[in-house]
Amino acid sequence: MAAALALLYKMLPLYVTVALGWIAGRYLDASGRHIAGIMLYIVTPSVVFSGVMSAPLSAEVILLPFLTFGLSTLIALVHRALGRRWIHDDSINIVPLSTGTGNTGYFGIPVALLLFGQEGLGLYIVAMLGTTLFETSVGFYLAARGREGVKECLLRVARLPSVYAFALAVVLNLSGLSIPLVFEPLFDNLRGAYSIFGMMIIGMGIVSFRGLAGNWRFTWLSFFGKFVSWPLVALLFWWLDSQWLGLYSLDVHQALFLVSITPIAANTVVIATLLDTAPRQAAGTALLSTLFALIYIPIMVSIFL
Length: 305
Description:
- With 305 residues, the chain is mainly α.
- It has a single domain, classed as Na+/H+ antiporter like fold (Up-down Bundle).
- 79% of the residues lie in helices and 0% in strands.
- The protein contains twelve helices and no strands.
- The protein has helices spanning 2-27, 32-54, 59-83, 95-100, 108-145, 150-158, 162-174, 184-205, 216-245, 250-261, 266-275, 279-304.
- 48% of the residues are buried.
């Protein structure tokens, strides 16, 4: 119980940041759309690059983001197929993002630092890169597919820099290179901006939020995928790997489990805003999931970690 309360205390600044985003949108007419572009094309690739550059890479660790990517894609496609039976507006295109990924960066990194310390944080960042790759490739493609043709969607994905940032960092890291000391403060500041502006975008997105924006089925499916399906898949892999495969250590299993229990990603709101695809629905559901996670994450951590 003490650990759960300590974690709850550490998470409170995240909710204050959401409130500050709401104030900025409500009283300063701040535009989440402009910040979303900066986040997706500049800040997120920078965080991906610096995270991979600082991680101790081995064959197993390099494959970890692809494992997370595969699990995200599986969960996203299954819930998209389920959702097509009940959801008949354009919010169905956001279901893969709301279920397949999570707020692993803006929300998860502070929690991982609290739980695992600085050393465990590196493994967590490598694991969460798989969800970032999913967001900026398959997730973005499926969200845009509802509004544009296949060719246009693929061109949009090809212009997203996070995948290139990941590949470049792997090559440089394996070559024995590191980020020059003079640039380390820059990347530290970008990681801070990643958390602050990511959570503020949620607040800006709910300025005009009313209820569940009219589609409770989207919200229920998103919650089920994020808080039931994802953790069950992570726990199943944990059991299979510990009993049969023997690929990863306990630290990696715990990092992957934390990835699975984070709330709906703020980048879901970022992409929905950029594509103008049910942004109010995405923002409202992301906010509710973030509030739910205030209680959910401490309980899950106290049970399984």
